[in-house]
Amino acid sequence: MALAARTISNILRRCTYASPTALSGTGRTLATSRVVLAPPPAVAAGDIADDIDWTEDMPVPVKRRVAALREVQEDYDKLMKQFIKERAELQAKYEQQAAPLMDKRGGLVAGDEKVGTYDIADSDEPDEGIPDFWLTAITNHDLLGEYVSERDAEVLSYLADVRVASLTGDEAGSFRLAFSFRDNPFFTNKVLEKTFYMENPDEIVPEKFVGCSIDWAAGKDTTVTVTKKKVGDKKSKGKGAVTINQTKPCDSFFNFFKTPVVPENPDDLSEEELEALQQQMDEDYEIATAFRESLVPRAVEWFTGEAAPPLYGDEMDEGEYGDFEDEEPEEPPQRRKLTQ
Questions:
Q1: Could you tell me if 204 and 30 are in contact, meaning their C-beta atoms sit under 8 angstroms apart?
Q2: Are the CB atoms for 174 and 195 separated by under 8 Å?
Q3: CA distances from 13 to 5, 49, 106 (A)
Q4: What interhelical angle do 271-290 and 26-35 show, nearest 10?
């Protein structure tokens, strides 16, 4: 395993194969679902001493049977690795077969695809597709909506499509997210991508994350805030002072497309920097998994809100889960509001 890969492994040590309970949300679901079928990840050199005899205190007959069991385990691991490789190829095959359906979905959203009446009464409203389809679906999502600010929402209103592509061959288990945008006043990119590479297809934590640069228009970057500051000679009492723009990073959905910078030597980072990097990578993978496993496959249900869990107050009085017979019928869940 390369040094950089080991560095990431160290950063995300709480997300290792042996500790799926350390993950949260979709990460835990993914980890748990792979524990049964996947072989254990390769151990980095130096992590465990090669000269340890794990059967030292066992009786000789048991040692021999353990040795035989290890041979069975090796054969099983080879079989599972082949299974994972073929599973990735099968997933990619069906993603290709689903591509025409995704194209049709895009046409329906854009208003390019004709539709029937579906026994719905006519109206004088113009049929211009479904405005803000992806923005609404994302902000309705119980995890993804938390990352969208008001400024992000303006940009995401131009989002035309989101696709997932599973990689195959030596990159089996890896996947790419592609976000297609209509022409907009915020950036010139037509597509924003982020790829999650697995060193081994059976691992639950990617080896590396590769994002893309966004060609923001002047003053449109939602990942920074800009403040004006006057700079001049104090002795001149304000005369000759000039105003400069100062930029400061801020929370934004579009931070997702950045590539995490992982140093080859983790000792180069302070504890705070290491925690910030871990949090960034945790969030990136959690967001990617939510798009891949939840939002993209069932986008229409997130758009309508039917896939979203009901929104309740943060606190409920004791006994409030009691008898509901005399209460008014429950209203449909409201769409999630954007965060500031």
A1: yes
A2: yes
A3: 12, 19, 39
A4: 80
Do 141 and 253 contact (CB within 8 A), yes or no? no
Structure tokens, 97? 């077969």
Q: Which residue shows structure tokens 């994972």?
A: 84
**226 Cβ contact list (under 8 Å, min separation 6):** 219, 245, 246, 247
Q: Which residues are within 8 A (CB) of 4 and not within 5 positions of it... i.e. 6 or more apart? A: 208, 262, 264
Residue 6: CB atoms within 10 A of its CB come to 17
Q: Are 224 and 248 in contact (CB under 8 A)?
A: yes
Name residue, tokens 């090796």.
74
**CA gap 161, 54 in Å, rounded:** 53
CB burial readout 41-77, b (16+ within 10 A) else e? beeeeeeeeeeeeeeeeeeeeeeeeeeeeeeeeeeee
Point out which residues pair with 208 in neighbouring strands: 197
Question: How many angstroms from the chain centroid is the CA of residue 100?
Answer: 24
16, 205 contact by CB (below 8 A) = yes
DSSP secondary structure letters along 75-104: HHHHHHHHHHHHHHHHHHHHHHHHHHHHHH
Mind giving me the DSSP string for 258-321? SPP---SSGGGS-HHHHHHHHHHHHHHHHHHHHIIIIITTTHHHHHHTTTSPPP--S---TTTT
Tens of each residue's pLDDT in the chain, 340 residues: 333 443 444 444 333 333 333 334 434 333 333 333 444 444 444 445 567 888 999 999 999 999 999 999 999 999 988 888 888 889 889 999 999 999 999 999 999 999 999 999 999 999 999 999 999 999 999 999 999 999 999 999 999 999 999 988 888 888 999 999 999 999 999 999 999 998 766 666 678 899 999 999 999 999 999 887 777 665 665 566 677 778 899 999 999 999 988 887 877 888 888 888 888 889 999 999 999 999 999 999 999 999 987 765 544 444 444 444 554 555 544 444 444 4
